[in-house]
Amino acid sequence: MNRMRNFWQAVLALGATVVLVVLVVLLFRVVSREAPTALSRAGEGLASVPPPGPATPLIKQAPAYPPPPYPPPTWPPATEVPRPTPPSTPTIPPEPTSIPTPVVTPIPTAAPPIIPRPPGETKPYTIVFRDDSVIRAINSDGTNEHVVVDIRAQLPLFLAGSRVGVLVWGSPSPDGKQLALVLSTVESIESLPKGIQPQYSIDLLDLTTGRLHPLIQDGIDPAWSPDGTKIAYRSTRTFGLQVVDLITGASKEVFSIDRTNLDYHVDFFVWSPDSKSIALVKGFGVASVGEVWVVNAKGEGAPTQLIALEMYTGYPNWSPSGDQIAFVSPAGEGVTSNRPLNVWVVDVGTGERRQLTQNISTTGGTPDWSPDGNWIAFEGTALLEGSEYQYDLWLVARDGSELKRLTNDPMSDLYPSWVPNRNKIVFRKSGAGIWEVNVVDGAFRQVYQQDVEYVILK
């Protein structure tokens, strides 16, 4: 059975092979018949394409030139090239005309008689000055210079001054017999540890015997009342203004300072001629801002504010009649770019104020009234006369109607003060000692040769 099955499988395979061979032969014959026809058609197509022309050369041949010699080249006629236009010279603008400086004719010194001769007899006076902690005195005619007291020889204290923050080291009594002195435990505040303040006291000096008598503790800047019974001073404990009665020894604060704001303090206090009132400056901080007030010397009633808060306002001084107060302030009219310290007066009763000077700046010293109240002496520089500050002495009428120049000197003339003989003013010439000028005939005289801090016994 197996043999028969294998036989028939072989027959079928052979038959399939024969059929495949026949199919291949038939396919070959068909392909052979179509090939010549396609080739003939392709040939006909190629025959219809025109034959190619001559080949175009890739590089163009150069044209043929005639043989040499060659004729010279022909050039176009030369055209003159225009020269460049030189740049124009720039026009220099004219220099601007400078603004002309105003031509100011300096104010000449007043010709004598400068003021009418005041009534009254001529009186001598005495100058008391300090040499560290030594007090000396000299007569106005230059005689009898002598030592009044050597404080260090009597007490372990120093005569206070600017080195310990004291403005007024001494105040003379109205009768010229005593001097209220400020004493300090140190000579300079720089010798103390940081945050520690000196201890101060006010003592009375007998100018005849040279003996010192203690008056009060913790006080500076004494000011003797015109009637000689009281002394006003600034308390270093409360920063307010206090008045001590020289008969009873009792002290009372008449103008208080708000202790919650210790930048406030009192400065530049001065008595009224009748010893009933005190004008003062209530200052604030280091900006020199101040207000002018008037208080009752007994501390009765409310203080009166005359001048509101202003920069650099200070140095009040009562007129001899007591109806006006002179002071300095940068307020007011003027034609300079600076803000000069002008001299003003204010009416005590009405508060009306009037500017007396302009374009002449004071150094900040106290304007001093003449004994008759008609003139005010001050030091100042005329701002319109030049760039150099030259401080000279001046007189201005109490109503501002007249201005008189007393000195015209490159050396600074400072701190004018009328003396009891009524026709002379004592002042300090910087670097040249103490001088006096006669305001009637204009004569000058040197009283003392050295620069010193002094007070005048009137």
Structure in words:
The protein has 458 residues and is mainly beta. The chain contains 2 helices and 30 strands. The strands form 7 sheets. Strands 4, 5, 6, 7 and 8 form a 5-stranded antiparallel beta sheet that branches. Strands 21, 22, 23, 24 and 25 form a 5-stranded antiparallel beta sheet that branches. It has a 4-stranded antiparallel beta sheet with strand order 3-2-1-30. Residues 34-60, 87-93 and 95-101 have low confidence and may be disordered.
For the structure shown, list the relevant keywords.
mainly beta, 2 helices, elongated
Q: Termini distance?
A: 177 Å
Structural class category: mainly beta
Q: Kindly state the mean pLDDT as a whole number?
A: 83
Total helices: the number is 2
Biggest pleated sheet:
5 strands, antiparallel
Our estimate of the beta-strand percent is 35-45%
Helix content: 10-25%
Task: Annotate the secondary structure layout.
Layout lengths: L1 H46 L78 E6 L2 E6 L6 E5 H4 L3 E2 L10 E3 L5 E7 L15 E7 L5 E6 L1 E6 L5 E6 L5 E5 L5 E5 L8 E8 L5 E8 L4 E8 L7 E8 L2 E5 L5 E6 L12 E6 L5 E3 L4 E3 L5 E2 L5 E8 L9 E6 L5 E3 L7 E6 L5 E6 L3 E6 L5 E5 L5 E4 L1
